Description:
Blueprint: E1 2-3, E2 10-17, E3 20-28, E4 36-44, E5 70-71
Antiparallel strand pairs: 1-5, 2-3, 3-4
Amino acid sequence: MFVDFVVGPYKLTAFEKNGLKVELTCERDNGQPNVTVINVNSTNSSATTMSEYVFQAAVPKVSEKKKNSFLCF
């Protein structure tokens, strides 16, 4: 998802199922405008304990045309 002209952090729920919720917060780095900082927050709202939880992310290549857009997936 590309979002242009975002002011402040952009927050979205990337996954929510069986009590597991994964939220991404994306924002530009103030010192490096070509860098997007993505923070991940994972929460478990179920009554059972989750073990061996692994979060993996793949970052796609971005074309020159889209480099000036705010990338959050």
